[in-house]
Amino acid sequence: MWIELLTKRYPGMRAWLSQRLTGLAMALYSVLAAGRFFYLAPSDYAAWVDFFQPLWWRVLTMLFWLALTLHAWLGIRDVFKDYVPNDTLRSVLLKGLVILLWLYLAWAAYLLFA
Amino acid sequence: MNQKLAKKNRPKNLNLFTIRLPINALVSILHRATGCALFMILPVILLLLQWSLRSAEDWQLVLAFLHSPFIKLVLMGLAWAFFHHFFAGIRHLAMDVHWMTTLMKARYTSKVVMVLGLLATLVVSITLWL
Ligand code: HEM
Ligand code: HEM
User: Fold this and answer.
1) Domain A2-113 carries which CATH code?
2) ipTM of this predicted complex?
3) pTM reported for the whole predicted model
4) Ligand 1 residue neighbourhood (C-beta within 6 Å)
5) Using an 8 Å Cβ cutoff, are B64 and B117 in contact?
6) Which listed residue, of B5, B9, B11, B50, carries a Cα 20 to 30 Å from B117's Cα?
């Protein structure tokens, strides 16, 4: 059964699917965000703050950032795998990548909910 | 002959200008390059967002910054990076569900991706400079 391909035994398939689903999620959010920005056309500071005021929007934006985190991790990881043949250097870079993405995630959460 | 020597004697071609780059390959490598570019500007986006929401004065500063001519050029580049990655990503998803996968069709959708990316950038550029 194809569903078996999504179990832990085939991590590559999971990565592949995650990259597509997060890409799709970000694509939908981008269109929505552009539409909302165009529709509300925030033209001063108060309007800009209002733009980020609704809880549903902040939750949606946080979900977008979660998708971005996973997507960027998978994507940049592939790039490192392709171009950095030295094992030591690559594992250092991958650790740095993970740390950076966690920092960004915390930063985004702080911006949206603090 | 031992394997190491064989490896050493392999021909190498590092002259990038001798490599042919068909349109599908171009769209593909640009998808990778734009993905990396988008990743690299993440901290800038977060910083600008933080400043723009901090106070009315900071919001003014961020706006003035974004409206300076040089930064507008940078924004055009970033807009293109986003749009190219966006449309090439959609093309990926389409091909993953086996749509438009023959060589001729793939070439056609590659051209569509290039054109849509540039068109969308043009639209954003117009609103940026008007
Ligand atoms: C707007 C919605 C987006 C869509 C639809 C999308 C779609 C995709 C897809 C389908 C892939 C897989 C390509 C492959 O397997 O060769 C991919 C790769 C990638 N994406 Fe995105 N993406 C989006 C946004 C982003 C953003 C915001 C970033 C930056 C943080 C990003 C960074 C990357 C990177 C670095 C790769 C790896 C490139 C490679 O391996 O060649 N993407 N994207
Ligand atoms: C899905 C993607 C996007 C769509 C559909 C979109 C759509 C639009 C539209 C319709 C406007 C006009 C709003 C108005 O005049 O009130 C606009 C303005 C703007 N866009 Fe986008 N956009 C997208 C992505 C981007 C990106 C990636 C950037 C920059 C990197 C960007 C930067 C801007 C800026 C700075 C303005 C305001 C221009 C000004 O008023 O001076 N947009 N966008």
Assistant:
1) 1.20.1300.10
2) 0.93
3) 0.83
4) A 19-20, 23, 26-27, 30, 68, 71-72, 75-76, 78-79; B 31-32, 35-36, 38-39, 85-86, 89-90, 92-93
5) no
6) B50
